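The methods section describes the discrete structure representation at length, but only in general terms. Each protein is reduced to its one-letter sequence and a matching series of backbone shape codes. I believe one specimen quoted in the main text would settle the matter. An entry of this sort, consisting of the sequence and the corresponding backbone structure tokens, reads as follows.
***
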Amino acid sequence: MKRVVVVGGGNAGSIVANKLSKKGLDVKVIEPLEYHLYQPGIIDYALGKVDKSEITKQTSEVLSTWIKNKVTKVDLENHTVNLANGEKMEYEYLVISAGVKSSHPQGFPEWHSLEGAEEIKRQIDNFEGKRIVIGSYGIIKCPAAPFELSFMLKERFPKAEITLLNPVVSPPPIQKPMAEILGKRSHENGINVIRGFKISEVRKDEKTIFSENGDKVEYDLAFIDGQIKASEEFKDLTDNSGLIPVDKNSMKVKDLDNVFAIGDITNIISPPKTGAIAHFEANFVVKSILSDIYGSGKTRFNGDAACAVYTGNGLGSFIYMNYEKSFALGPNKFFANLKTKFGNMYWRTIRGELL
């Protein structure tokens, strides 16, 4: 029986582990956390639209097999991973889906953890000011997330002055359909988007954010998404971006036929790092491993990603993207409802029961 070691039990890792386990493979998942977080639901939770129980479940509820531990090193030469308890685990196939860590710029709450979500919710619930600023540093997970948060904060605080600081002057061509809808909806919602604003300094005592060009924006409440990179234990595998380089059509690391990286930890930034592309990457790697074992031929991953995003005032849009093309639909109420309802479907997808 072939052994597959999956490092990380998040969205992508859970799909790989559960689907390969159902095929009779010996799957070992290394995951240090006792709970699984539905990250796209963080915004809904922070704005009080869902309960915490709707975006979290015990890891044991979503994984068919699970080892509570932490990987400290990946040894590609010897086909092993080192664990925090001193053990070494051999693999025949390795899938690295450990996610990323996000910096906490200037003490702002982290956007992609349960602890960060709770702090964001606390600050929103206690907000009594007027000026809200949303921004980000460098590479973040999903470029639509700051827009979504801005739209939902405008719904919550219609009289607030909301400014979105975007470090990118112009989106890459593949993202233009998405950017056009988000930009149009920002204008319609009265949100001021400042493109090319690269944050250089935050003076929290003055509640002022400065750009590299010397521009400044004042705030009463601000949420700044931190730049992402792989955790220290993967430093031997990362490139200058701090992420693991992969062949985008095979998801393989260093051209090794038995080592894959998927999800946020890869150096693929277009399509953006969403749960949708992680899901499709996971499905592709499942097929690749099974094809390699049973000799059914090689396939190529084309970067498929599709998701619904909130665009304010009860509306939503649908975004599809791959390596070559993209389109955006909406906005309308149907896609907003689709985004909301997918939270319930999510738990079935990561168990390998759906999609």
Remarks:
- The mean pLDDT is 96.
- The two ends are 26 Å apart (CA to CA).
- The chain is about 25% helix and 25% strand.
- The first strand starts at residue 3 and ends at 7.
